[in-house]
């Protein structure tokens, strides 16, 4: 009880830690973009657990090195983002799903392709999924997302999608991009925050809207187990307060992918203390755009 009280005091929730989540493993380090691009595949694929996969596009392919997330349920699968540049994510994800179906002795599964937001390094591979059998591509627009996820009042309403024995909650979090979404997987406690929160430079286009979105995220996570907050990039080095320059392909000393709810609280505090201003913190930098 004492440990739970301590966590509750720091993170604002004790109930969250009383709930159980499905475990998984993150790699100690990721391949980035070198030092020898001839030795690196275009994609690094990591099995977090048997129904969650994390894909990272190589820096040798595109300097943004974005992360993609694939969640597999009983009846449907959800892919968040499709990559940057000349992304062949459809081929890679299709092969991964085929292997999953073979392992599970199943014939098919519907694939939902959605996005964190509409910027080019997150939607570049969309064309490869268009016309794919048993696939729905949700365009990265406010209209398409609000309709698909049942969010009548944007951005206040919360949406969700049932993948079959796996419900993922969906929040609208504009501020970096008008159509930005966050995703919470109830089974693993993973909270996907796209380009709103990750280890690196958080580009804020609309400070009041971004701040309100962050408040909504803090409120949403207050009574839920959060195993990891995972964004779409790593730009931070392992040295506190120091990030890699824009365009860096090879990041041998990069920060880990995972953040925690304390980072979300820290972000909200920075936004409220220094509205509209650049703020450098240990793991993140608030950067006006």
Low-confidence stretches: 1-18
Query: What is the chain-wise order of helices and strands?
Result: HHEEEEHEHEHEEEEEHEEHEE
Mean pLDDT: 94
Structural class estimated from helices and strands: alpha/beta
The number of helices is 7
CATH superfamily: Ribonuclease Z/Hydroxyacylglutathione hydrolase-like
Rg, please? 18 Å
Helix content: 10-25%
Distance between the termini: 44 Å
Side-by-side strand order of the widest sheet: 1-2-3-4-5-6
- Major sheet characteristics: 6 strands, mixed
Detail the topology: elements first, then pairings.
Layout: H1 2-11, H2 15-18, E1 43-49, E2 52-57, E3 67-72, E4 76-80, H3 89-104, E5 110-114, H4 120-123, E6 135-137, H5 142-148, E7 159-162, E8 167-172, E9 181-185, E10 190-194, E11 200-204, H6 207-221, E12 228-231, E13 258-259, H7 261-273, E14 279-280, E15 284-288
